[in-house]
Predict the structure.
Amino acid sequence: MQGARPRTLPTAVSPVLVGTGVAIGNGTVAPGRALLALLVAVALVIGVNFANDYSDGIRGTDDERVGPLRLVGSKAATPAQVRNAALGCFVVAGLAGLTLVSLSRQWWLIAVGAACIAGAWFYTGGRRPYGYAGLGEVAVFVFFGPVAVLGTVITQQEGPFGAPAVIGAVGVGMLACAVLVSNNLRDIPTDTVAGKRTLAVLLGDTDTRRLYAGLVIAPFLLSLLAGLRSWPLLLTLLALPPAALLVRDVLGGADGRALVRVLGRTGLLLLAWSLLTAAGAAVGGIL
């Protein structure tokens, strides 16, 4: 359970919440498809966590780690066990995804699903993992934002999805990136020694903290602009006070185990922003 990194699960739930809220606002209620999308997202996130644990563990990147338990690095499980757990999660995600595609008749999403699984594996896996080249945040934004949010919308409704879906996709992508940035900010010292060139390592401590602040605040600015057109989307501003506290802590120099707490709270912020955005999109479409 610890190896699955439950603090990251809001990144799986949030895009499905937003996409489902948008679909409801557009007049579509499809709980079965929403649950299938949630299963795909959760299985992929747990799968990528196990895959990262496996790949980082066999490279020795996790031998010295401040954050949550790493199964391979701590020798709590064998590399083969962790690899098989990752592959099992990808199989579950694939089967749920195929079922969802068959219901929605959006067959082209099979290619998107295959790209998601490949992205999950090669984040730290393979000979040239893109997560070691400073591209992790780009992938997180794409897969957890536009792909997950708009994919949820597309599998539940027909026709155009509108501005709330786009704003939701960008906001979720940014806050999901903030979760990763808080993790990589904490790991700058150990990643530097291990040769893992994350974006945080490339930017350095100060600029990474500024990046985190921007990623957290920008979604609220988007919500404010969207609220000028549809006032229920202003509901997201209820989550602004905890966001401001997180920015204060990070810009104030939180490090080590304090950043472990920041990571968990950033995940909860993502969940809160997404829930409020989903509610605003649903209500805005009905009014």
